[in-house]
Specification:
There is one protein chain. The protein is built from eleven helices and 13 strands. By secondary structure, the protein is α/β, with parallel strands linked by helices. The protein has a single domain, classed as Alpha-Beta Barrel (TIM Barrel). Helix 4 (125-131) links the parallel strand 7 (112-116) and strand 8 (136-141). It is globular. The mean pLDDT is 95. Bound molecules: iron/sulfur cluster (SF4).
Amino acid sequence: MAVREIEAIALLSPVKQPDRWFGLRYSMNLYRGCQHRCIYCDSRSLCYQIEDFDEVQVKANAIDLLRRELAAKRSKGTIGTGSMSDPYMPVERDLMLTQRALQLIAEFGFPLHVMTKSDLVLRDLDLLRTIGRVFSSVTFTITTVDDQLGSEVEPGAPLVSTRFAAMGRLAAHGVQTGVAIMPILPLLEDTLENVEAILRTARDFGATYATASFGVTLRDRQRAYFLEQLDRLYPGMRAEYERRYGDQYFCPARGHRYLEQEFDGLCESRGLKTGVPHYRPERAQQLRLL
Ligand code: SF4
């Protein structure tokens, strides 16, 4: 995959409030494009204006921008990373932009939420613990417990079993971690057994929370790419998608209402909170005083 440096104008984008999913105030993407190549990735949609998603663009001035922007912020709000590109994709191993960004976030005392599919996050364990004195949380996206299926739909990402192991190490070192079961791909991953297995395994590896989206969103270029990949991987499934969903944006999982109804109970019975925990400034203040 090609890698190219670009200059960004700004780094932290304000998130529309309230952000009920992740409680973010700012979103931070150090890269454009993603080496994980998930077949369902929403970042391929035209609205994000990434011409060639299979080329990674590196924001060469990201760290300078971040220092300036953090210094100028009057109030602290959670910085989220991992929405448009994975902050721990392979290129990060050498470039260490995410690590340098986390150093600044620790220095300025901002709360952080990381969304990833990579065990490379373990490299920054100490930083995550430091940031955790204010607030840090690492959510692993896991849509199946089956390594084979995972490697088909997320071909550039570490195996699902590797992600669970990383979750376990973070939890063992006191970093708050959980699982995002999203998207749940219709016809491939939309069974109660799959959802249950993810929750059970996540709990076994120290997750304390879970969130889920029972279906997948598809639009324009992203849809075209996804359907092409279905043709390649699962002959015949494209026709079933087209028959069920046509050009619909949200493509619900089979039995999505039933899965939604069951989800809270499944989490509760395994001691998992539903939803990603949000930063509470007053709670951080109390912990600092202890
Ligand atoms: S890891 Fe996230 S950003 Fe990267 S390709 Fe997969 S869905 Fe897209």
